[in-house]
Queue: 2 jobs
Job 1
Amino acid sequence: MTRKHRLLLFLIGAIGAGFVYCAGAGNMPPWTQYRGPYGDVIAGLAVFQRHATDTVNAITYDYRGFDTLGEEFMLFSAVTGVMLLLRPEKDEKDASAKEPRNPASFRDRAALSETVQVFTTAVFGLWVLFGIYIGTHGQLTPGGGFQGGVIIAAAPMLLYIAENTDAFRRIVSHPFVELLEGFGAAAYALIGLAALAVGVPFLTNILPLGTTGNVFSSGTIALISACVGIEVTAAFTLVIFEYLREILSREKNQED
Amino acid sequence: MMILGTGLLTLIAVSAFIIVRTDDVTNQLLGLGFYGLLFALMFFVFQAPDVALSQITVGAIALPLMIMLAITRMKHREAVNRAGKKRS
């Protein structure tokens, strides 16, 4: 197949795809116009039915909470897969057992700029606080467990950028983080099962709804959001840690 | 509003094309972070602040960082393989 033939084939395909695209785009709703009843119905009902002012979170953690449960376990199994793939082999494990006693062994070679260090260290506490704020106010304002969780998970990465791998490792390399991940995922399912135990369908909002606009309102929405936050924080931290450990152990093997 | 939205969408398309055409992987990753931020801005303009928040953290921080770590890992493996071949 020569270049000429390939170009001809591409042109035929491009014209065909362009035609189909234009035909499809012609039927699109007008700019920023929403058609379809579901969004309007939910937007009108969510505040009264669930006492949650952020409709998006009312939908994700309540109206379609079962889908979100599936998404959460998707993340859970993805992280488990990464951890399984990157698990230390036997001789590497022996080496990692000695690590805590000799923390200087992994000092990063490149010296960091002091400006980066000072500002990142200063921002660390605020960063975690902001993550907690976003995670716990999901039912009131845009945000929620997933967003807050990822923001908190970025905090150890900040520390890794500002200090060194050891500082990062001191925060993350505990079985506690793995436990947190399991706890977050399990708590979501357990909240759903609690509804079954009371005698209503899975993941029904059984807690008292509280006053609209309060942090402690909207029943299980806030609770599930917090659990998702814990799970996401632990999951992202674990993935980054596994990658870093893999790289570092290889670096060390090369030096030996 | 329409001009802002159209401009952003055009910018996203242009930056996506530039990222694809970039040869160096590190530059490509930096571009990817910028692309993630543009996406977050687009979600915000189209009135989806929830999605914008997660897009900022996932698209601009987590995704480039993970790809960066994966690439570093691959480079190490290549270096180790090369060293092993020389020795044997």
Job 2
Amino acid sequence: MADDTGLIGKPAVRIDGVAKVTGEARYASDEPVPNPAFAFLVTSPIASGRVRSIDQTAARAVPGVLDILTHENVAGEITPPKAPDQGKTTTTLESDKVWHDGQIVAVVVAETFEGAREAAHRINIAYDVQPPAASFDSPGAQEEPRKLGPEKKDPVKGDFATAFAAAPVKIDARYATPTQHHNPIELFTTTCVWDGPKLTVYEPTQTMYGLKAGVAKQLGLDPANVRTVSRYVGGAFGSKGMLTSRTAWIAIAARRLKRPVKLVATRDQGFTIATYRAETRHHLQLGATPDGRLTALRHEGWEVTSRPSGYNVGGTDTTARMYACPNVATKVNIVHADRNTPGFMRAPPDTPYMFALESAMDELSYALNLDPIELRRINDTQTDPIDGKPFSSRSLMKCFDQAAARFGWAKRNPKPGSMRDGDWLIGYGCATACYPSNIGPAAARLSLTPRGKAVIQLAAHEIGTGAYTTIAITVADRLGLKLEDVKVVLGDSDLPPVPVAGGSNNAASTAHVAAKACEEIRAKLAAAAVAANDTPFAGLDPATLKVTAAGLVGPGGKREPLDKAMARVSGGPLEVHVENAPEGLKPGALAGLYQGQADMVRGTARKDVTAFAFGAQLVEVRVHARTCEVRAPRVVSAFAAGTIVNPLTAYSQFMGGATWGLSSALHEATEVDPRTARYVNDNLADYLVPVNADVGSLEVIMVPEEDNRVNPMGIKGIGEIGIVGMNAAVANAVYHATGRRIRELPIRIEKLL
Amino acid sequence: MSTTSPAADGPTRRRLFEAAAGLAAAPAIAQAAAPAPTVRKSGAVDVVLNVNGQDHPLTLDPRTTLLDALREHLHLTGSKKGCDQGQCGACTVHVDGERVLSCLTLAVAVQGAKVTTIEGLAGPNGAVHPMQQAFIDNDGFQCGYCTPGQIMSAVACVKEGHAGSDGEIAEYMSGNLCRCAAYPKIVAAIKQARGKMERG
């Protein structure tokens, strides 16, 4: 818990800031390797069919070409990869089968990048083409209800059908969200280096141990012989959260050549060799009393996936729990198409599913003639409506109240189309944001020198979240050190494991293991000190002693220099290796961590409480009365997410999330050609993401919240929540400005004409 | 009710890319009188690149971009590859003081010019440039991948005289994408560094 004396909760500039502004920070493709050969991928221009023949003559004639991998020469060399949900997924060079557009069909390796690229373009591949199913409604697309494991079921409560039929006020509406791609600015790169039986993989990843275990399994290697290195990740947002096909092929290419091989996939290849946010559809039904109490809620979702994969995000786990409602029904369907397998993208379930719920809530507020914030207040609850558990804490209305005050919500004239500034129609919209609070097991190695310098090492991930700094803050806080006296080493699978950096668990998982390591050092020093005769602490309760930079400190200001206290337990630096298994973790989850598994204590699946962070997002849009151009000059977001370890970097992350939300609502969509099932706008000029001049005022309020039930340090996590309310808040504001309800994202001019 | 209208005169994506492309073309003119590279029988060319004040003789495939020459041949990996097609700005360096997209610039085209990368921005005593410090102070980045390009653009933006207002900074920094979306903090950093650069 943050306190006035500690460092947790005080803004601190990033300890890796100098490395990042000077170019010293080493991202995976920056790692120097001796004499690398360069790989270039060849990807399929068709979405369904088979490779009929491959003519390599012209490609082989390009000077410097060293090797060409196709299914003809490497098919049997790997075990196929897993989907993000660990189920089946599409294959690449395992066979002649083409599952989707842009599938890897060959890997060319040459002395130079330029030579590899030229040869890749000179390979002549003939295909047997099948007509592909691109998406929903395509001929050949196959719909089925999602399959749930034995431990999971669709959230349901009461009797929806009866309650909805009887409801005096009803909303019954359908919503849709488009395909989206993460597009981190760092490309998908892989560099593989063999040293005898040992393989080192330099690849940007959110899962050091998942990548290590996955590659080992695919190649049939002992995981002890695989090392993954990813000291800095140049943006991830979920896209680097799982093993993809490219890695094993680059490892095999390097093994065949007995030489390091380096791949930097192109921007357009990134759209098809990694994952994406699948397009979704939603059917929302709400029933309410005339005074605004929800009596019935049904949410059915449809999500696209690849042919073999059952991957889905299933955000009904969230939407069913958002408001007090006695009768709830939910269902999730998947639609198989000839597409690459989707995966995690920032707030994977919540971003699309909360768009539907929060849009429907806004529609309900108009049907009831209620202020949309008041509608949420009426239906606010401290109890999980599905299973009756208390929320660990829920400060949703505090968030709305603080955001509304800051925003000037009171000035809103509720009538749509009533607020205008010259040619610009003005709209105010709001929505709830939320994200489950997750925490996973983690391990770390911490050493402290007699001069008060600490080094903590763990295979955690710096993806922009400020992980180096939050971990340093925790250690400095607990050992009473200055931030600059703590060194943090991350991003190497030779270090102790932590879970995937996703699902907003990173800060909680790493802070708790860091704090536990500090406690172990304190306890060792304290136990030795109270047992010795040559200290001022002899015979005291060891729990009363604290470690600080000045030494061991006890009650009444008694102190002993650190070197003296440490000499008692270790000759030099004192090192501890600790593991932290949060309460409620499944048996075996800690052991699974070392195998690259990511079992966590999930906020929606706990026995004691339901744990979410909550927020409120308020947006002003301006829609040009004649051109229908939409602008969002002002966003105020308030979040209550428990302990905020570093408010400086947290602000950046919340703000970035809100910008992602603006982008999702107004700009982003990957266009899928319905005839060919190919991505059309697979580059950064045509896939619209905001530039500097696109963003206006983005205010973030961090609502203080103490939560001692979510986990001991009260950390709920913040990476995902910033985007969650924005889709609906923008759409609701557009409705307020124009009277036009846009139920399909993104809200571009053509939808308002 | 606020009466400020949104940036109706704000930049369009197209204008920004035109601006970026224009900047990329600048060194081509500057080096018109530069020595021609020597072409070997293999097709490789011998060039001398002046980077961060040092001459580097290199033998390159003539198709090698300045970005790949920096990263793969000189091991100056601060300049980043984000798209390799002039759309993101992560590869921005200075050529003869002008900001340039190094992925759209052939290495052979800058022989005779002075190339400055993020690694060459710090002072001779190793002190970070005021712009680098301002990015740290304002948390003007998250993952840091676009940051070298942002900083090279930001230094140029101030030197060009395009940092007069928040709107002008945002306009002239819109060729550098930041997917983490640190934009308002990048503007704040440039405002902080602007004064120090002008004084210094």
